[in-house]
């Protein structure tokens, strides 16, 4: 038997939705849709829900499964699962009113406007069809829209992943006469944090940020309609120094002794080299305590993430080539910044560079000498950086490291992988959105009563600190995992 919690709402009698618990027999691979039917049969519960094809094709059965968008006909039911309606106006139980979003699509006139069919030849059509195949595979289940943190927490001035994907489909169609790029700007093209949640919940695995938003940002930059004024500084800094941010004090690379014979190299990233040099020193100390030597090669430059995320792509190839040359003889390249790690792993191969990159948690998880650790009397929680959890698929290793530290009590927060708002050029370009998301995260952190929130991303660290300060919780520390480890080896 399993327990299933289903959100019930009948506007004739309820002010707001509430969860009801049902117990059913779980059959192998039982889907949410099967479970809802079993509940209705067993309890005569009359739960209202939509479905049609039962094959993941029509999108009508979209629901929230433990807070994330999913298709009821595809998602396997689990014990204690929470099934709720999508974040749209509820008609009854799990049935939502889609007219708001459908009317928006209608108002935006999202249908092809083409007066020049004759000029479009077969090969152009075929090419376009190939290029947009993925974004066209949307089945309109609205899982992405209901899971987007910007839409649901931060601002109404963002059309969200569904609308952005829709616009991009027409923007890249050579038959389209209408200026879709301006539409995308009006709908908040620069309001997306690149958290990747929309792709994680999409039943068709559509990468809305990369294939729609990031691509349209690059077109906006080419047409001088982007980026935001605050983003131009990254480009200028990189042109002048190879780094996206200015240097406070002496750069980390110039402060340390290198081990030129080591086949393990550190990719510092801009924040660590120019602003958070102390984290680099914690790495050296933790590695020394575990008998590991690394090289930190000079001449390395920005990974290009701030440029790729904001659409300023003209310098990226140069950056990739420089780093490829610097790191070509090393066996392992370590990263301490999730954004750098995700960019090196996911974007650089498209530019011709494939290095063996490891996040520091991947590298250290099976190498720590726990006998040498002393007790650290702290309660901590963990924030999954989007570019680590979803961007690199790394969720277990940091938690396993924290659990190895004696004395540390670990408390999971409610949604550890919810975006804090630091990425996608939002922190600099749309600080009010970054702050709203960070404050939502701060509330979750406060509930754990932890002394510190641990993470592996300098951008998340900065934004979480701002959110905690603004939420009256400046006593909760924000620490890189290496800072916590250093305490154990002090
Ligand atoms: S019923 Fe059609 S996608 Fe689930």
Radius of gyration: 24 Å
Looking at the structure, the CATH topology of the largest domain is Fumarate Reductase Iron-sulfur Protein, Chain B, domain 2
The low-confidence parts are: none
| Number of structural units classed as domains | 4
Number of strands: 14
Largest sheet: 5 strands, mixed
Q: What compounds are bound to the protein?
A: FE2/S2 (inorganic) cluster
Question: So, CATH architecture of the largest domain?
Answer: Orthogonal Bundle
Biggest sheet: strand arrangement? 2-1-5-3-4
Portion in strands: 5-15%
Structural class: alpha/beta
Mind explaining what this structure looks like?
The protein has 490 residues and is an alpha/beta fold. The protein folds into four domains: 2-95, Ubiquitin-like (UB roll), CATH 3.10.20; 100-222, Orthogonal Bundle (Fumarate Reductase Iron-sulfur Protein, Chain B, domain 2); 246-364, Rossmann fold, CATH 3.40.50; 370-489, 3-Layer(aba) Sandwich (Rossmann fold), CATH 3.40.50.1860. Helices cover 42% and strands 11% of the residues. The chain is built from 23 helices and 14 strands. Strands 2-1-5-3-4 form a five-stranded mixed beta sheet. The longest helix is centred in the last third of the chain and has 18 residues, at 431-448. The radius of gyration is 24 Å and the shape is globular. The site of FE2/S2 (inorganic) cluster has 12 residues, from loops.
């Amino acid at each position: 038997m399993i327990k299933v919690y289903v959100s019930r709402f009948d506007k004739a009698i309820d002010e707001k939705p509430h969860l009801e618990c049902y117990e059913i027999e779980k059959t192998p691979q039982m889907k949410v849709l099967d479970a809802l039917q079993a509940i209705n049969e067993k309890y005569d519960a009359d739960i209202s829900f939509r479905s049609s094809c039962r094959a993941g094709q029509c999108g009508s059965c979209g629901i929230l499964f433990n807070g994330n968008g999913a298709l009821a006909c595809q998602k396997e039911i689990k014990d204690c699962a929470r099934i709720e309606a999508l974040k749209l106006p509820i008609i009854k139980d799990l049935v939502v009113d889609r007219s708001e979003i459908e009317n928006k699509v209608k108002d935006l006139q999202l249908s092809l406007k083409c007066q020049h069919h004759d000029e479009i030849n077969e090969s152009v059509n075929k090419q376009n069809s190939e290029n947009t195949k993925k974004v066209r595979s949307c089945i309109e289940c609205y899982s992405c829209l209901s899971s987007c943190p910007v839409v649901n927490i931060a601002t109404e001035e963002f059309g969200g992943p569904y609308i952005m994907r829709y616009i991009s489909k027409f923007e890249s169609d050579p038959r389209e006469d209408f200026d879709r790029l301006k539409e995308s700007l009006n709908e908040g093209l620069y309001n997306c944090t690149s958290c990747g949640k929309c792709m994680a919940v999409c039943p068709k695995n559509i990468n809305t940020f990369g294939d729609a938003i990031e691509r349209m940002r690059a077109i906006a930059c080419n047409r001088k309609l982007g980026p935001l004024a605050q983003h131009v500084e990254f480009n200028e800094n990189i042109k002048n120094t190879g780094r996206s941010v200015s240097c406070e004090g002496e750069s980390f690379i110039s402060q340390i002794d290198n081990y030129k014979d080591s086949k393990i190299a550190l990719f510092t990233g801009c924040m660590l080299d120019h602003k958070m040099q102390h984290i680099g020193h914690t790495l050296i100390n933790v590695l020394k305590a575990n008998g590991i030597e690394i090289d930190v090669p000079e001449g390395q430059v920005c990974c290009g993430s701030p440029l790729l995320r904001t659409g300023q792509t003209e310098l990226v190839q140069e950056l990739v080539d420089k780093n490829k040359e610097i790191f070509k003889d090393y066996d392992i390249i370590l990263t301490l910044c999730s954004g750098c790690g995700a960019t090196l792993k996911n974007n650089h191969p498209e530019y011709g560079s494939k290095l063996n990159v490891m996040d520091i948690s991947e590298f250290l998880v099976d190498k720590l000498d726990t006998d040498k650790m002393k007790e650290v009397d702290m309660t901590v929680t963990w924030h999954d950086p989007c570019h680590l959890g979803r961007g690199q698929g790394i969720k277990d290793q940091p938690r396993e490291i924290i659990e190895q530290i004696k004395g540390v009590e670990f408390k999971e927060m409610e949604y550890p992988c919810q975006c804090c708002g630091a990425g996608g050029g939002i922190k600099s370009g749309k600080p009010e959105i970054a702050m709203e998301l960070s404050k939502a995260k701060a509330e979750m952190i406060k509930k754990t009563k932890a002394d510190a929130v641990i993470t592996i991303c300098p951008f998340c660290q900065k934004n979480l600190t701002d959110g905690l300060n603004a939420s009256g919780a400046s006593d909760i520390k924000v620490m890189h995992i290496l800072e916590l480890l250093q305490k154990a080896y002090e």
